[in-house]
Amino acid sequence: MKDTYGFSTCPKDTGWPKTHHTEVLFTKEESGGIQTASRISGYTLTHLAHAALAMVVIADNPPNSASSSHYLNNVSLANFQGRLDPNHTLHPGYVLGVFMTRILVSVFLSPDGTVLPLDRDMLLWVADIAKGQYRAHIELPAGLSCMPQVGEAYASAIMPAVSANMLPSDQCYSFSSDGKGENYLNHTFADDTGKPVLLVNKFFTSLNRFDPGPFFRLSSWGGMVDLGADYNNSNLVKTEDVMNYLNQWRRFLLLILD
Q1: What are phi and psi for residue 148, nearest 5 degrees?
Q2: Residue 184 DSSP label
Q3: Going by C-beta distance under 8 Å and a sequence separation of 6 or more, which residues neighbour residue 46?
Q4: Helix, strand, coil in percent for the chain, rounding step 5
Q5: What is the pLDDT of residues 192-230, one digit of tens each?
Q6: If DSSP codes are grouped into helix, strand and coil, which group holds residue 34?
Q7: Distance between CA 1 and CA 52 in Å, rounded?
């Protein structure tokens, strides 16, 4: 899209992808505080995390009046478990719904084109925009049933772009709210006698990332919120850069506690 705004420009990929996953965690106390504050503010943790991530992009690549009409266009995922028919309601995982979220860059700019403070007020303002877009997607009558066709359309566009090395090096992020792992998976597995044989101490979701922009993920396990990123660590994105993104994402999300 010509009106896309994203991270600072980086080189195009000329080598074989080297996919990695990294993450930062909140403590149990921080996790509980963030979730309580999000409910009091009228948002979900997904809304706030999406807003905080948009602020990371703006901090990394500050816009000006020339880009005020551009958008943070990013792929987002919603869980459509509530759309399943009664025969499939016990499905233990993510029921994937993909859509494009668009946040206007001018939201972050003052009338003279300078970037507004990336503070708690901005976090809540952008969270409200994200909330409206998630709501609109959830309310689509065919939000889940159209996913096979969406997948085919995406694949038909992305594969030629990969082959021709035409993916934009300054694209925006992708964001997946993977949900509470403790709601989907058992912490403990037992044998036939009921004796525990396996304890799950860690859960995360990841994918092989072949294109430039990091794929950011939000999840939790054992009451601890986890911010992660899948990224292509070839000549595109350095691990230290991704860690800087994650730590800044964490700091922006903590603003809700101020």
Answers
A1: -60, -40
A2: H
A3: 130, 134, 177, 218
A4: 40, 20, 40
A5: 888 988 888 887 777 776 665 688 999 998 889 999 998
A6: helix
A7: 23
